[in-house]
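We treat protein structure as text, and this decision shapes the records that our systems exchange. This encoding replaces a full spatial description with a residue-level series of whole-number codes. Below, we set out a record of this kind in full and without editing:
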Amino acid sequence: MDNFKSGFVTIVGRPNVGKSTLMNHLIGQKIAITSNKPQTTRNRIQTVYTDSKVGQIVFVDTPGMHQAKNKLGEYMVNVISKSMSDVDCILWLIEPSDKVGGGDKRVAEQLAKVNVPVILVINKIDMSDGEKVAKTIEAYKDLVEFAEVVPVSALRGAGCNELIDTIFKYLPYGPAFYDEDTVTDQPLRAIVAEIIREKSLHALNDEVPHGIAVAIDIMKERPGNRAFWDIEATIVCEKDSHKGIIIGKQGAMLKKIGSTARYEIEQLLEAKVNLKLWVKVKKDWRDSDFLVKNFGYNKEDI
């Protein structure tokens, strides 16, 4: 089709502004995990929005902009930099505020180096008012030359249709990159590992720092029964004391993580799942190139 548009769009912002929530809402399906802890998103996750009459948007979700303190942190910052190059448009997601914090200043420094349209997306308008949004625009307007400003609520979906329309204005004409029914380039194993990690973060609250990873050891359909999967996974933490907290009294915490993860994995696979979880200690894994790679992070980005 001559009037079909397609392109890549990166979503950037400091931790916890709602990047993954926004992406999940825009494509209408949960792909990226969410939590109220910083650095939840570690990989560059691509999801696909297709409107057969208008075009296709390939969204690239990124980790929150932060100062790297270990190998994993360096990897995540590297992912952000790579995700800002070779795209057609960038969404900078912020929260309503009349002051620009240090994290957003770091984002602005990166955006000053790019030569593509930047759309400022002001999230969480359901928790704010028009006056606060106006003050936010005033505070941010001189940091970067914005192509557009779009207020949204990623949680409620307000403004998301307008944002999609705005993005298409800045994409080039061209064919689709993916089939119409594709929603992500993430392999199933990666999505399952992320679901388990998300449920761990939710269940543990602030008891265990962010230093956990999930490795899928076994993931296979049962022979002769395509409606049943056997999955074994290991939750990796950095300290013996963390292992005890993750397992919990008489295994209660691990059971809680397993049951909530299994429910969501069954929705994803549309099948019954036998999920077994183990916990291992790998001290300082976030500072090991080998282990960061081993836990599923893209070697090219390290």
Remarks:
- The radius of gyration is 20 Å.
- The first strand starts at residue 5 and ends at 12.
